[in-house]
Design goal:
- By secondary structure, the chain is of the alpha/beta class.
- The protein has four domains: about 80 residues, Phosphorylase Kinase, domain 1, CATH 3.30.200; about 280 residues, Rossmann fold (3-Layer(aba) Sandwich), CATH 3.40.50.740; about 190 residues, Dimethylsulfoxide Reductase, domain 2 (3-Layer(aba) Sandwich); about 110 residues, Barwin-like endoglucanases, CATH 2.40.40.
- Helices cover about 30% and strands about 15% of the residues.
- It is built from 23 helices and 28 strands.
- The chain has a seven-stranded mixed β-sheet with strand order 5-4-18-17-16-6-7, sandwiched between helices. The protein has a six-stranded mixed β-sheet with strand order 24-26-25-28-23-27.
- Helix 11 packs across helix 12.
- The structure holds iron/sulfur cluster (SF4).
- Iron/sulfur cluster binds next to helix 2.
């Protein structure tokens, strides 16, 4: 089988020799009936892949070498993604909770029960007492439909999505700085950069194929700077690694900018012509000398100087960042502080010069564009803006006064459930019990609901608490579009039909809308009709897809928005000529002083706790924990700790440790590694129950983006009570394929 490359160097650095890519039992050697050109269902690179289909089953894959982004390369997750199809855990029919667990039901019974619960709760407590939570792994069409369903059919303000745990700090910062929320450059600009600064992103594990772009730049002489509390696989190949103390990212950006200004490496004419408010930033960073910055961040002053020396005089440069700087109570401020570095040097809007946000979820970009966020209408319109409200009300044929106002964000919805203000909930492709901080509170909130309905393809941990489970569709069982992390809208092709009595997600949503009396607004015969409505709704909005059609997307291997007219070629690179999207065309500097995390270390909890992902798992693990060969690569959560910390605590490698925060504790084996700061421990978050890292994280939110502070809180670490020598933990696992 021809395939695979990458990111073997990065992968091996972390895990040792690359494992066999063959699935348990070997590759399926049968001749396929057809090959379907589509995309990987996991991260925001959205690698092209051809699925092999036989007898309406996905039996394997072939590389799709013509798709320009990955040119046939796939990471370990992409290679195994096809194994989720035909999995024995696949939901095949609707389920209704009974005395003895779940029983299968007819669609009529399950949908009627759901609609009765919606009507009864809303009649008793008001429309907003019923909430809806969507997902950012879903297609653009479903993201659009989720928003329309919640506002028009449910009439609730309380709709949000799981991107609230992922991309929202970057999105808010992008809009504040540039007036638009999208990566500034296509990925093909990365190899053209002479310096690449990567802040808070474990690219090789979370966005693996992008590693290839960075290494291509490195092979052409680019310098790579990485900022992270952990020496990630990519950091091991970097020119400069800045081991920032968790929660201090904005101070580090201020320290670098201080040196850039002192050494006159800022582009004064670009700043004067194309930006506003630089003087506020100049005044702010005056006190962030390398010495002061070292004191706050733990990064040696000499390294801060070196970073400025690399970035300052470079002829071209790219900034990439991800959740490492965004998952904070000051996530937006962190991102804005790094954007200041880009604007100050004026290196944006040109080949090899710019900025990108790395999107962890499959449709992390498109999932946040089409109206499933609590403050947003289609086309990226603002739900609080009178003209935007009127446009969408007219477009949908409803009264503006009937359109709900801004509702609660994802974590706030769970707090409203705790407080008894929200009584009913539907989730789709979202597993909050694993994803939201303080899992015990999430579990208790679910039990308080008078009705909970889940639309999903596997019975995830949250869906186990549902009254009704509506068996939906896997990515390969539906068609539609997604928008990649670089802003390229690509086409997903349906490879197989949903199995058994499972249904395509959007059919379920439309059926619910019909039973709620709004069927005339949800009449679609295929996903393309939803897409055409979505693009028309976006016309003239901040996120304009109105020039796109399925045919155009397919013919051009994806189209970049803005694409505001039928003949428009799309916009791969934003901000050319220094034109930004604020009404005066100028970008904005933002001067936010550093402030500490919501929960800092102290005598009682002296160690930083941080969480993140591993290469073989995806988000809450609903899919990847079911694929045996991915499980084998990283079977259980481990607590990474530095040998110096381990020695101080008397802990051996693989010995069970308990990590305790003010919210709870988790017991997992220790993994002693030199690649983490000695004051910090790390546990990946993909597992549920007693092995959920989110038992101990906290829900302190960024005031603008409302993202929780996943990346830093205070903990202490102890040998597990009763632990005796080295150990492994027994996980309650779903079946593996
Ligand atoms: Fe590509 Fe991401 Fe899928 Fe890996 S997980 S194959 S990098 S889309």
């Amino acid at each position: 089988m021809a395939i695979l490359t990458l990111p073997d160097e990065a992968y091996c650095a972390r895990f040792g020799p690359t494992p066999s890519y063959a699935p348990v039992g070997g590759w399926d050697q049968r001749e396929p009936d057809r090959l379907v050109k589509t995309h990987c269902c996991f991260c925001g690179v959205q690698c092209g892949i051809q699925l092999k289909v036989k007898d309406d089953q996905v039996i394997g894959f072939e590389p799709w070498e013509e798709f320009p982004v990955n040119q046939g390369k796939l990471c370990p997750k992409g290679v195994k993604r096809y194994l989720q199809n035909g999995h024995p855990d696949r939901l095949l029919a609707p389920l209704i909770r009974s005395e003895s667990g779940f029983r299968q039901s007819s669609w009529d019974e399950a949908l009627n029960k759901t609609v009765e619960a919606i009507k009864s709760i809303q009649a008793k407590y008001g429309k907003d007492a019923f909430a809806f939570l969507g997902g950012a792994s879903m297609t653009n069409e479903k993201a659009y439909l989720n928003g329309k369903f919640a506002r028009v059919a449910l009439g609730t303000a309380n709709i949000d999505y799981n991107g609230r745990l992922c991309m929202v700090s970057a999105g808010a910062a992008n809009r504040m700085a540039f007036g638009i929320d999208r990566a500034a450059n296509p990925w093909s600009d990365i190899p053209l950069a002479k310096v690449i600064l990567i802040a808070g992103s474990n690219v090789a594990e979370c966005f693996p194929i992008l590693t290839d772009y960075i290494w291509r730049a490195r092979d052409q002489g680019a310098k790579i700077i990485i900022i992270d509390p952990r020496i990630t696989p990519l950091a091991r190949t970097a020119d400069l690694f800045l081991p920032v103390r968790p929660g201090r990212d904005s101070a580090l950006a201020h320290g670098i900018l201080h040196v850039l200004i002192e050494r006159r490496w800022v582009d004064e004419s670009f700043i004067a012509e194309h930006t506003k408010d630089f003087e506020k930033v100049r005044a702010l960073v005056k006190t962030y000398t390398p010495g002061v910055t070292e004191g706050i961040t733990g990064v040696p002053a000499a390294s801060i100087l070196k970073a400025a020396e690399l970035w300052g005089p470079a002829e071209s440069s790219m900034l990439l960042h991800a959740r490492g700087i965004e998952h904070h109570t000051k996530g937006v401020e962190n991102v804005l502080s790094y954007i200041n570095l880009v604007l100050a040097t004026g290196r944006i809007g040109k080949p090899g010069c710019g900025y990108g946000t790395i999107t962890g979820q499959g449709n992390g970009q498109g999932g946040r564009e089409h109206g499933q966020r609590c403050n947003q209408l289609p086309g990226g319109r603002d739900i609080n803006h009178p003209d935007h409200r009127q446009f969408i009300a007219d477009f949908w044929g409803v009264l503006e006064s009937e359109l709900p106002r801004q509702g609660l964000t994802a974590c706030e919805i769970f707090e409203a459930i705790e407080q008894g203000e929200i009584k009913g909930l539907i989730t789709i492709s979202f597993n909050p019990l694993v994803s939201i901080p303080e899992a015990n509170r999430t579990r208790a909130a679910l039990e308080k609901l008078e009705f909970y309905g889940a639309i999903d393809f596997f019975l995830n941990e949250t869906a186990r608490h549902a009254d009704v489970v509506l068996a939906g569709s896997l990515q390969e069982e539906d068609e539609g579009t997604v928008t990649t992390g670089e802003g390229r809208c690509v086409r997903l092709r349906q490879a197989v039909k949903p199995p058994g009595r499972a249904r395509v997600d959007w059919h379920i949503i439309c059926d619910l809308a019909n039973r709620l009396g709004k069927g005339e607004l949800f009449c679609y015969s295929n996903a393309e009709e939803i897409f055409n409505e979505l693009t028309a709704a976006s016309q003239g909005g901040p996120i304009d897809y109105s020039g796109m059609t399925y045919e155009r997307i397919e013919n051009s291997m994806g189209l970049f928005w803005p694409c505001p007219a039928p003949g428009h070629p799309g916009t791969p690179r934003l901000f050319e000529g220094g034109r930004f999207f604020h009404t005066d065309s100028k970008a904005r500097f933002h001067a936010y002083d550093y402030r500490p995390p919501a929960e800092d270390v102290d005598a009682e909890f002296p160690i930083f706790f941080t969480s993140g992902r591993v290469v073989s798992q995806y988000l809450s693990g609903t899919q990847t924990r079911r694929i045996g060969s991915l499980v084998d690569q990283y079977p259980e959560p481990l607590c990474e700790m530095h040998p110096r910390l381990a020695e101080k605590l008397g802990i051996d490698d693989r010995e069970l440790v308990t990590v305790i925060t003010r919210r709870g504790e988790i017991t997992v084996p220790a993994q002693i590694v030199k690649t983490i700061r000695p004051d910090t421990v790390f546990i990946p978050y993909h597992w549920p129950g007693k092995k959920a890292a989110n038992q101990i994280t906290h829900r302190a939110l960024d005031p603008i983006s409302k993202i929780p502070e996943f990346k830093v809180c205070a903990c202490r670490v102890e040998k597990a009570a009763g632990a005796n020598g080295h150990a492994s933990i027994v996980l309650e696992s779903p079946r593996r394929k």
